Amino acid sequence: MIDASTLERIIDTANVIDVVQDYVTLKRRGANYLGLCPFHNEKTPSFTVSPAKNIYKCFGCGKGGNPVNFIMEHDHLSYYEALKFLARKYGIDFIEKEQTEEDIAQKNIRESLEIVTGYGQKYFSETLFNHTDGKAIGLSYFKERGFSDKTIQTFQLGYCTDKRDDFTQSAIKAGYKLEFLVKTGLTVQHNDRYFDRFSGRVIFPIHALSGKPIAFGARTLRTDKETAKYLNSPESEIYYKSKIVYGIYHAKKAISDKGKCFLVEGYIDVISMFQAGIENVVASSGTSLTVEQVRLIKRFTDNITIIYDGDKAGINAALRGIDIIIEEGLNVKVLLLPEGEDPDSFSRKVSSSELIDYVAKNETDFIQFKTKILLKDVNNDPAKKAAVISDIVKSIALIPNNLTRSLYLKECSNLLEVDESVLYYELNNHLIKNADQKRNKRTELPIQQTITQKQPPVLSNKQFDIVEKEIVRLLLTYGDKELFYTENDVSQSVAYYIINEIKNDDIVFSNQLYQKVFELITSFYNDGNPIEHKTFIHNENPEICKLTIDLLTPIYDLSKIWEKHDSFVTSEDLMLKEVVPKTIISYKYARIKKELSEIEKQLKAKLDDSQIQELIQRHTILKQILIKISMLIGNRTI
């Protein structure tokens, strides 16, 4: 278990902007930062980060938290692992208490797989530089490709000897369990024997966004056609190939800085272009481009340029990738290299400046690319040309933005010399088909998956529950702010006013969670201390933590309850003298309505005359109070 002082130091040091921007491109928006949420697919940024409160919140999927929560959620780590990650990031000595058996049992498979994979990366890299075969075969190969020592070390390239179980035996001697060697795919079991998956191959570690090696790609150096040229790690609890793009860890900063990502096919292509000075480059990691991979790139830029081989396979891959990228709302261009060249060979043939200049001058938008490629075999055949036009318009129909779609349709009309109105007719047909397909997919999903991601807060239909939440929000957000002066010219804070109003009437919140937060705030008030948000944000009760983040994030929907009273303003803190008292009055109003409803239910039951008379009197008094309160808050619907 972690030492208490170490925990406090990590929480105090971890900066939410530092942590989040390693994974998400953030842009300043006033006092906060905005970006695309890493936890769900979105085309319009709704992921807000507040440096002042040290929290993040997504208004699309509802996820929010502090820096520790972010690492837990994003990297799928336990609370303990996330703290260790942050301690390493900020150079904090991680002091631990003696762990109990239960603590040890909670260390999951994921951590073990990461450790084994990390060992594999170091072993292969050391073999490359220190082993006789590593230097003679593996290092020679990389040098022939023109890779410098710096580049080899940056990408942590390695080599596995062709002795069938060298690595496996070494790992076992070092104390690593066969169970995890097999689960990572580093070791293959055949009957009762165990072999190295990557024997006789050069190694390309695949890194997660955080920089951890999570899998490997490996290339054989044999000319035997029966041997697969490339071999990748199987999927595991730490590696999902459809969600990872090769080189993203090394490229993410350059992608964000340049505002563009170059997408190539292979590991060698990435490394060669990176070494040539184009560092904002990634590859689809041994698989056809997937939606998840595009969404990962989208966290850092809206612009992708595809640079695939100019052969038939490369062109077909580019055509498939275009539609996936377009549908996710990104801008896509395509670069065709000179005949016979690929990104690796071309990067080595020209200088860095020539490569960058060639890219800038020759990349084209997808309309021009598809037109050039697809019209090659038309030969003035009207039917074939119509099919090409329909195919291009089908891609345009995937563009989510209406204006962008319209501009591309105009370009298509000019290039293909087809009347724009005809293209709009074809476009509408594709749009209708797309809408029908999406509708059918939604109906095929299990019920729990059809629920929209953006859910409103879970609230009771009763007004008092809504206002209870509003009271807690006002306390957390403005508790220490001055509300007004008393007759004795003594300043009274928002917390002082609200707590006294609630306590004087012996009110207990109906919602237990709100009551817990209210009691915590009251304890600060009773001790004469300012309210410390970190006590709530890092609370051991996850419900309190989540509620606090929801309420402290600037865009808070419940504040709009004042819109119906024509009182809601953007600068709410300037209206506290009106908002706070009205909230308390509204709360009391809601509680009275609740009690009136309960009395009316009781009156329907069989009661004696004295009980009925007592209830009627109580009902009359409450009704009169309700009328007065209604007039105060401008609500005359009783």
What does this structure look like?
With 638 residues, the protein is of the alpha+beta class. It has five domains: 4-105, Alpha-Beta Complex (DNA Primase, Chain A); 109-239, DNA primase DNAg catalytic core, N-terminal domain, CATH 3.90.980; 250-362, Dna Topoisomerase Vi A Subunit, Chain: A, domain 2 (3-Layer(aba) Sandwich); 379-453, no CATH class; 463-633, no CATH class. Helix 12 (267-275) packs parallel to helix 15 (343-349). Mean pLDDT is 81; it is low at 442-461 and 556-570.
Number of strands: 18
- Number of helical stretches of at least 4 residues: 27
Please tell me what the overall shape is.
globular
Largest sheet, if any? 5 strands, antiparallel
Secondary structure topology:
Layout: H1 4-13, H2 16-20, E1 27-29, E2 32-35, E3 47-50, E4 55-58, E5 64-65, H3 67-75, H4 79-89, H5 101-105, H6 109-130, H7 132-144, H8 149-154, E6 158-160, H9 166-173, H10 178-184, E7 187-190, E8 193-196, E9 201-207, E10 213-220, E11 230-232, H11 248-258, E12 261-264, H12 267-275, E13 281-283, H13 291-298, E14 303-306, H14 312-327, E15 331-334, H15 343-349, H16 352-362, E16 364-365, H17 366-374, H18 382-396, H19 402-416, H20 420-444, H21 463-478, E17 482-485, E18 491-493, H22 494-504, H23 512-526, H24 533-537, H25 542-552, H26 576-603, H27 609-633
Parallel strand pairs: 12-13, 12-14, 14-15
Antiparallel strand pairs: 1-2, 2-3, 3-4, 4-5, 6-9, 7-8, 9-10, 10-11, 15-16, 17-18
Helix pairs in contact: 3-4, 6-7, 6-10, 12-15, 18-19, 18-20, 21-23, 21-26, 22-26, 26-27
